[in-house]
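This section describes the prediction task in plain terms. A model, or a person checking by hand, is given the sequence of a single protein chain and must write out its three-dimensional structure as a string of tokens. No templates, partner chains or ligands are provided. The sample shown here is typical of the held-out split.
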Amino acid sequence: MSAQGDEAVDENLGKVTIAPNVLVTIVQKTAGSVPGVAHLSDRVPGVKRLLGLHTVGHGVEVEVVEDQVNVEVYLTARRNVDLLQMGRQVQREVTRAIEHIVGMQVGAVNVHIEEIAVEPASGESLERG
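The expected answer:
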């Protein structure tokens, strides 16, 4: 059977829809697991929600334009980490996860390192406000 014939069979199976929040969750889990990332930012600055094209979650903004995903990741890095290398790894891992898990093309993954984590001296506790 030709590739064209396979496509016709697939189309007859129905439609698969992936909610935008699924993309946000994939990005959050993937970015948060990269070595050197302390945590994702508590909020996304300058939130844009236009016609439902932008979906925002903790430290992540996802935009889908014509079956292409654009991602903004806002995070706090650990101390003593090569920030450029860590940012590039976040880009690679997020791109791989979206393409592999969802099968969508990634246009851009922009990483915003908002701050460096202040780690407490031994015996002290770190409070986040």
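For orientation: The first strand starts at residue 37 and ends at 40.
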